Amino acid sequence: MALSVEKTSSGREYKVKDLSQADFGRLEIELAEVEMPGLMSCRTEFGPSQPFKGARITGSLHMTIQTAVLIETLTALGAEVRWCSCNIFSTQDHAAAAIARDSAAVFAWKGETLQEYWWCTERALDWGPGGGPDLIVDDGGDATLLIHEGVKAEEIYEKTGKLPDPASTDNAEFQIVLTIIRDGLKTDPKRYHKMKERLVGVSEETTTGVKRLYQMQINGTLLFPAINVNDSVTKSKFDNLYGCRHSLPDGLMRATDVMIAGKVAVVCGYGDVGKGCAAALKQAGARVIVTEIDPICALQALMEGIPLLTLEDVVSEADIFVTTTGNKDIIMVDHMRKMKNNAIVCNIGHFDNEIDMLGLETYPGVKRITIKPQTDRWVFPETNTGIIILAEGRLMNLGCATGHPSFVMSCSFTNQVIAQLELWNERTTGKYEKKVYVLPKHLDEKVAALHLSKLGAKLTKLTKEQADYISVPVEGPYKPAHYRY
Amino acid sequence: MALSVEKTSSGREYKVKDLSQADFGRLEIELAEVEMPGLMSCRTEFGPSQPFKGARITGSLHMTIQTAVLIETLTALGAEVRWCSCNIFSTQDHAAAAIARDSAAVFAWKGETLQEYWWCTERALDWGPGGGPDLIVDDGGDATLLIHEGVKAEEIYEKTGKLPDPASTDNAEFQIVLTIIRDGLKTDPKRYHKMKERLVGVSEETTTGVKRLYQMQINGTLLFPAINVNDSVTKSKFDNLYGCRHSLPDGLMRATDVMIAGKVAVVCGYGDVGKGCAAALKQAGARVIVTEIDPICALQALMEGIPLLTLEDVVSEADIFVTTTGNKDIIMVDHMRKMKNNAIVCNIGHFDNEIDMLGLETYPGVKRITIKPQTDRWVFPETNTGIIILAEGRLMNLGCATGHPSFVMSCSFTNQVIAQLELWNERTTGKYEKKVYVLPKHLDEKVAALHLSKLGAKLTKLTKEQADYISVPVEGPYKPAHYRY
Amino acid sequence: MALSVEKTSSGREYKVKDLSQADFGRLEIELAEVEMPGLMSCRTEFGPSQPFKGARITGSLHMTIQTAVLIETLTALGAEVRWCSCNIFSTQDHAAAAIARDSAAVFAWKGETLQEYWWCTERALDWGPGGGPDLIVDDGGDATLLIHEGVKAEEIYEKTGKLPDPASTDNAEFQIVLTIIRDGLKTDPKRYHKMKERLVGVSEETTTGVKRLYQMQINGTLLFPAINVNDSVTKSKFDNLYGCRHSLPDGLMRATDVMIAGKVAVVCGYGDVGKGCAAALKQAGARVIVTEIDPICALQALMEGIPLLTLEDVVSEADIFVTTTGNKDIIMVDHMRKMKNNAIVCNIGHFDNEIDMLGLETYPGVKRITIKPQTDRWVFPETNTGIIILAEGRLMNLGCATGHPSFVMSCSFTNQVIAQLELWNERTTGKYEKKVYVLPKHLDEKVAALHLSKLGAKLTKLTKEQADYISVPVEGPYKPAHYRY
Amino acid sequence: MALSVEKTSSGREYKVKDLSQADFGRLEIELAEVEMPGLMSCRTEFGPSQPFKGARITGSLHMTIQTAVLIETLTALGAEVRWCSCNIFSTQDHAAAAIARDSAAVFAWKGETLQEYWWCTERALDWGPGGGPDLIVDDGGDATLLIHEGVKAEEIYEKTGKLPDPASTDNAEFQIVLTIIRDGLKTDPKRYHKMKERLVGVSEETTTGVKRLYQMQINGTLLFPAINVNDSVTKSKFDNLYGCRHSLPDGLMRATDVMIAGKVAVVCGYGDVGKGCAAALKQAGARVIVTEIDPICALQALMEGIPLLTLEDVVSEADIFVTTTGNKDIIMVDHMRKMKNNAIVCNIGHFDNEIDMLGLETYPGVKRITIKPQTDRWVFPETNTGIIILAEGRLMNLGCATGHPSFVMSCSFTNQVIAQLELWNERTTGKYEKKVYVLPKHLDEKVAALHLSKLGAKLTKLTKEQADYISVPVEGPYKPAHYRY
Q1: Amino acid D131: pLDDT
Q2: Which member of D285, D299, D305 has the closest CB to residue B287?
Q3: Is the pLDDT of residue D2 over 70?
Q4: pLDDT in tens, D45-95
Q5: Chain C interface mutation, best of A287, A303, A306, highest count of C Cβ atoms under 10 Å
Q6: Residue C316 maps to a domain
Q7: According to the annotation, is C349 in a ligand binding site?
Q8: Above 70 in pLDDT, residue A238?
Q9: Which of A271, C137, C471, D175 has the highest CB neighbour count under 10 A?
């Protein structure tokens, strides 16, 4: 695929796999809208006043059908939008096509190379000579990273005249980032500074991106305000947990058709994502085993009847391995060599370094047999047995299936819309400093409330006496900040 | 697709969608073999003696990857095989391609018309002038039906000279059957008699087909011995139950990506299939409601915490409807009109008459919007709201996903191989009359035993004293015939 | 407790722990009646016609609150009743008191010695000089056994003048049986023949008793007709399964207050009882492991995500052991020695020979510490660690708690009433020979139907067309005899 | 029971039901010790250094077997202890007896009147003329309340000479509190000031007590430092959740023997306690319905497949009602009148005002029938139908069963020991002000870790590289403060 930007008849830029899939994408977007009451409520509540009038929003977030409904909510509220995916396999091409044709500038397709991936990210941030976006919707923090690295490089360049050197790192992906920045510096040595200047803030979707932001806050290097959407209760305790409970078996089934019942399945990590994965596998009839580093999460697994062991204890007996840790180097090639024939190895954490793909690819004599896209059998020469790797070690629910379903993404994305509105509305008030914030409890409760009636649920109302008795307002918020749900 | 038979280079007949998918099919067949220990054990145990040497086997059973492993087990034991699918949507084209290229005569593709479907069935039964097959592997009983109807028509024709009249029935599909028989009669008025003569017997896969066989036994019209494979414990209590528990959510997800958690799901029927479906939906977080006619099954649902209501009670509140009854006229167009917008309606029973598709198609002003193949939205003119029908009312797990996974099909199909062997080995002994038989308990237990070690399981052995105490042989069978598991 | 019969003011015999508990018993019986719709329906339907007028019924079945409702249903239908418990620990003394005072001759108390147990059984069968009962309600078959052994001994005595010799057996309990028969022979050498003569038949409650009956049928030694109530679907698939799912954790909690969550629990046997136990433990958060001899049941466990191992594999790691096999010698003293300190060992099968109590009691140096009645800690001298044995190896749910709850017992006992009615009504027609029978399907379905409305359930009705399509009557029965539910 | 203090031979004060139950209590305490690894580890780790040497600890916390192990852990670390229960029904008399005889001054018995209850609380706080305790272990905050109210009254009395007037409140229980304070004022007008002076701090066990503390902190009236033990993760996410999952069905079964399967059960409130209750009921086969005021908790219920309705919607159809809200006026007499005959109504929240007992007791013509202690049937005159109230509306798991099991209480109580140590060790450092604190994350993780090996669990260890990658120390703590588990 040649990396050149295309334009719609109305002149909007895009780069997608196949614009002719736009009609199919539109049909699925319409189905999704019915399942996303939070986003549709935002359109009803805020659409008329056009609060995003004049705002440029760049998103770096899986370009799926659900994200399409998010994008069109942002545009319905008046924003101009440019978008890329935050994972090379997570785009649904018909969603990208529909958005590119109808609503926003999209640069995303399923199966990008890393080179292409960062080209797309750059395109999404590129609003022309006048600088970058006003707001960023980020997932995993790659858009935010690119700006921070860009600013850093420009500062060094200004002081020392030195360009960033891609050869200075072993990390193949970071080499690409440095190359992009280096090439940009040559044409405009203030490009990322201009972006930073204009930027009102970022709202970050996921655990991994949030970790990066807090790290920058601690180091004092954060360049603009950030809202941590991940830690809204209606995000992390729903999307991470119930989303994965849905999409993990979906990914396994679409990729391998394997019968989960009767199998031994190892889930590495028992955070929200791990809890969702373990629940799904257990309910499908697998014997689930969990590995954990945190004794509290470990004890939770045990209380649910799930054995807690180390990967070494079970590596040669398990049939399915899932990494959910957000950490690196969880399943190494040395583990993989000891696995049963056709053991399935996959990752549902944000980054692809939980599974030692490099170790696998460079293992002497290893043979890769592609069963179908995102489903590969790797055969070890000594034993002539193989393991099955899903989505090349990347997010298997988005690589092998369609990610989380609309309803739960409506919770997450309603938080995103609210966070974006908050940043934009307060852009001149100084309310938000260069720090990481979470949304206030009452907004979190509001997001939940917007999703109840779709499910036919009826809330009980506190009387004034009851509210006073437990010292909360009748209308909420109902819980202290530290409440864990 | 023109209905003409093609031939491989070796001269074997076939008609499939795309022979170039054979390599992909072969890769998936190889994965499936690892998951099908029962079938692979049959190859090891019986392959060397070639027991099916000289036997012609016709199969009418979903042409999937798993069925491919069954077919190649039959051929590995010496049989010659011709195959068709028993459902217009259930073929996996890559499986059909691999088998057509490598192993047997296949007439099957995903998305046949009914006309094409019966053409395929006829092809599979057509072994040339020398008559038909020695054995039939049937699923739902269509191959058996065609022969029985053929013989009946030939007898009438012989006596009265009358040809069957397709116009004598309202049932569109049965019109096609009569047409085929009529046209056949013209060329060979003894065709089905010759088939009947040669036929050693049939082994039937599923509840629906078994019901037909018992009915014919009661009426005294059964033309050859039949083995009821469905009621092997290792079939009905595994395939029907655990197979559907796996493949129902798989079908829902692939067709609609709907979030099951939080939804109200109605399962019509709480037999083995209904139990599997209800369990899957409940575990995924749906509020499940069951409808039943049988008070015992009804009480079982209640003991599992599942409300028992009538369809009328819940038709306007539920989000997902699944029919599993094996009966007809379960969800009528009048029900569908009252459903919520985008309610999902699907069937996982063998035949497509559980859902009133005719009523829907002929509803005045109704509009069909195909989201993608096997996923249609039907919009009613009065309300402008729509419902989503999966697989046009046919088996949604095979129409919208890939059916049951390999491991559980290995149980079912090992019973098939054993049944076929039994019929063939006893073809001259008179052991089997024109009746319906089930496999003896010890073979049922053997099928189970063949699947245990794959799962790392260890059976306990009875001592002689213990076996005597409970009056069973040390090696089994362990249970009386009436035991329900 | 002196073994002398007492009499109520109205002259009815009894022997219970404490008649003053009758009021308390009555209150709980009244609660139970609300939960036992099947029995109450029998009173309404059959009470007016007094079908049991003139019938003497002896019952040998756990003398609990639920059994009290059964007894008073039999008396409400006109029967005279004498009753004993079929287990030394299973009597609820307040239930026995209420029945003794108000309704029937009862000989039962919690904590009988074996000597006392058989004395009670003899009393329940002793209807005075005119012979024994017309009908027996048996559970485990001890009343039936006593008559069969008595008849056998009388025949030998008549032929040879030889009295039975208790010293001829090692089995302590059988020594008592022989002693009773011997002593009876001295006073009336035709006592059991007279009983046999009068007896119309027996209805048997449980798996173990049924096994004995079929064995006698095979051997041709069965002396009167028997109805196998256990294998009514509404008995074995409800009482055995859902009853144990309820009462196993109840027994564990009342006996030991142990936290089940987090523990490793081994269930020996995965029949209906084992399935109920495993489900309960799993749901409470235990890591459950099953042992099985039957490969089909074994594969069922695996499909539910339960590991299948041998007792030897897990004996030193598990915290809770439950036997459910109906076989003997399952957990031997040699296993117990290897268990963790305070491992809990219990049995929920009918007889107490699943756990090697004799081996434990006679283990050199072993020390028994009674925590409370039916909860003993046995300490091994080598390790000074102990295990906890519940109910001395007998049915722990009845020994340590109150057995199954009323609702599920209503299903079982409605079958009993129907079986007793059937035997009595057909007593002169010759319908029942000296064989074992099960109740016909339509009665089984009726039992279920009687329990649905209490749970607010609504059955769907077949149309005539639907009934014809599946070849069943509109009113049922709906399933073939071999259907497994 | 006459309210006079008794003394052991060694001179320690006590008032219990029956000291002769001490041996039985001791046996159960020894069993519990094996199940409470956290407390036993504290004895091993801290026992030798006797950190509580010289400390007087007063506890107001359910006097159960588990609490006995807590008390003896405090004494093993050098403390002197006086104890009362925090609920009139929650004492296990054998536990109280063993502790009274062997370890500490206990004033507690099952079935206290409210008068007796507060007398016991006063006794536990009364350390003689030298003032009160150094430390308080509180559960629900009654000991803390008494001191705060006492100090307040003394201040008024000092300023105005006015004694508190019990007639000034409608609340029967608060009248007793005021009476006690009034009577105390007459003998020592500085009694509670002296207590306050000496007091180092309180550690509070439960949600309700914690709410009171935060309220006092906000009002600025808190008189000494408090550690909120409830919100340690290893308390609230274990005890509240898994403890109730265990003890709710236990209480239901012991009180009523009701079959839970098939019933409709309403859980009011879906916090940690409600989640545990709903899970238990669902797993036992009930159809569970939840009522909630908080939209987030409501949405969680829906994601688990649990319908969310209001009490009004279901009051006449449900069989079992459980309140878990921590609020008041949840089930009113007007609700109760509409319930089905023999509906079970119970509360598992800390206080007894969730159920309108006053409304019930004063309902015209209502009749109370005590089935057995803590199980009453209340019959309404209009309908002559009744409802069953457990534990007179108080904590049913402690009133009708034995409360939470040892293992989970070991988590809670290890937090208590650590909190008490922390307060005591820092008593002179000024680290703790008159505020409410939670324990630091690393101590929370330590509590969990102490409980893992008992369950045979194996934690994974982070490598240094992995720890750096996620920016945590190798040894933890592993999560940010806001993490929700």
Answers
A1: 87
A2: D305
A3: no
A4: 999 999 999 999 999 999 999 999 999 999 999 999 999 999 999 999 999
A5: A287
A6: yes
A7: yes
A8: yes
A9: C137
Catalytic residue (choose from B263, B404, B446, B451): B404
| C259/D253 touch (CB, cutoff 8 Å), yes or no | no
- Together in a domain, A88 and A160: yes
D316 is catalytic: no
B218 lies in the same domain as B300: no
B257 is catalytic: no
Pair D388, D426 in one domain:
no
The CATH number assigned to the domain holding B147 equals 3.40.50.1480
Q: Chain A, 5-64: which have a CB under 8 Å from a chain B CB?
A: 24, 27-28, 31-32, 34-35
How many domains are contained in chain D? 2
The predicted structure's pLDDT at residue D426: 97
Tell me, yes or no, whether D317 and D371 share the same domain.
yes
A287 contact C CB<8A: yes
Q: A85 and A224 in one domain?
A: yes
B468 is a catalytic site residue: no
A208 is in an annotated binding site: yes
On whether the pTM is more than 0.95, the answer is yes
Residue D285 sits in a domain whose CATH number is 3.40.50.720
Using a CB-CB cut-off of 8 Å, the residues of chain C touching B456 are: 307
- List of chain A residues whose C-beta atoms are within 8 Å of the C-beta of residue C262: 299, 302-303, 305
D341 is an active site residue: no
**Interface check C307 vs A, CB under 8 A:** yes
Q: Are residues A19 and A90 in the same domain?
A: yes
Q: Are residues B139 and B199 in the same domain?
A: yes
Q: Which of B90, B203, B232, B353 is catalytic?
A: B90
Residue contacts between A and C (CB atoms, under 8 Å): 38
Q: Is D54 exposed, middle or buried (0-12, 13-18, 19+ CB in 10 A)?
A: exposed
Residue C484: inside a domain, yes or no?
A: no
Question: What are the pLDDT digits (tens) for C294-327?
Answer: 999 999 999 999 999 999 999 999 999 999 999 9
Check B452 against C215: CB less than 8 A apart. Answer: no
Residue C328 one-letter amino acid: K
From D66, D236, D412, D420, the catalytic residue? D412
Residue C480 is assigned to a structural domain of this protein: no
Q: Is residue C242 part of a domain?
A: no
A275 to chain D: closest CA residue: D485
Helix (H) / strand (E) element for D124: namely helix D114-125
Encode A320-332: b = buried (16+ Cβ within 10 Å), e = exposed: bbbbbbbbbebbe
Domain extent at residue A24: 6-234+404-443
**Catalytic one among D15, D193, D235, D446?**
D235
pLDDT level of residue C2 (50, 70, 90 thresholds): low
pLDDT tens for residues D103-133? 999 999 999 999 999 999 999 999 998 889 9
> What pLDDT, in 10s, does the model give residues A414-461?
999 999 999 999 999 999 999 999 999 999 999 999 999 999 999 999
- Interchain proximity B407–A262, CB inside 8 Å: yes
Share of chain B above pLDDT 70, in %: 100
Across the interface, of D285, D288, D304, the residue whose CB is closest to B304 is D285
Cβ-Cβ contacts under 8 Å for D226 (sequence gap 6 or more): D144, D201, D202, D203, D204, D213, D217, D435, D436, D437
- Residue A276 labelled as part of a binding site: yes
B461 Cβ under 8 Å from any chain C Cβ: yes
